[in-house]
UniProtKB/TrEMBL annotation:
The gene is accD. Residues 30-286 form the CoA carboxyltransferase N-terminal domain. Acetyl-CoA carboxylase is a heterohexamer composed of biotin carboxyl carrier protein (AccB), biotin carboxylase (AccC) and two subunits each of ACCase subunit alpha (AccA) and ACCase subunit beta (AccD). It comes from Paenisporosarcina quisquiliarum. Zn(2+) binds at C34, C37, C53, C56. Pfam families: Carboxyl_trans, Zn_ribbon_ACC. GO terms for molecular function: acetyl-CoA carboxylase activity; ATP binding; carboxyl- or carbamoyltransferase activity; zinc ion binding. This is Acetyl-coenzyme A carboxylase carboxyl transferase subunit beta. It is found in: Cytoplasm. Pathway: Lipid metabolism; malonyl-CoA biosynthesis; malonyl-CoA from acetyl-CoA: step 1/1. Binds 1 zinc ion per subunit.
Amino acid sequence: MIREIFSRNRKNKYATIPSNASKTDVPEGIMTKCPECKHIGLTKDLIKNKKVCPACDHHYKMTAYERVSIFIDEDTFVSMDDHLSTVNPLNFPGYTDKIKSDSEKTGLNEAVLTGTGLVNGRKVVVAIMDAHFRMGSMGSVVGEKITRAVEEATKQEVPFIIFTASGGARMQEGVLSLMQMAKTSVALNRHSERGQLFISILTHPTTGGVSASFASIGDINLAEPKALIGFAGRRVIEQTVREKLPENFQTAEFLLAHGQLDAVVHRSSMKETVSTLVKLHAKGGN
């Protein structure tokens, strides 16, 4: 059956699926096609590779729970504030239904998962944004959960680590979403005043109000390769400055070259890198 469905493309070195193949021939989700190089491989192999394309190194988006599974030590993660839920303060049409739909789809109560856990045996508080929930946009509950997570890290005197992935402030909540930029930043400033570490890890995409607030003010700012990071969109900026921007503008590599990041770290090395940074900043270096 496999030989009938798949043919080997010698030139491009990857399997292809004939256009006349029946949808019932290949179970849905068993294969994944890379959006960058078009490589087709088994989804289970992609997951084993931490959702990084084996052909071109493209970093796929991850769910919050997938991120927990590869970053936090097994069976040590304890989530926080799962009871918080979003309301519709502006009576925006259809907003409540969309929130409910995304919650059912992702298993999250909002676009960020927060909690405590161990990274190679060292305790941290983490916040992991999930772009599969309203494109990771930041509303009042997202801001509240991140703020509470920061305050818990300050209280326990442990590092706070966040993985950002967001389209920015959530328009359906208007100024209430914009207020979260200041609230989260104030909590992080208090965390810093207590001498505690904050590591921000920017993943694809990190844009808008999130990039302009907590995502960019880490003691150490890291990013995954080729992640889109910026405030306004390329076209808006080009129309404003009336100049053509570089092709790699707003990528992690561009920001690193211009001093806005401390390092671009491959997903396979992220846990060890963060673990080392946490150890180096621990009292006595232990």
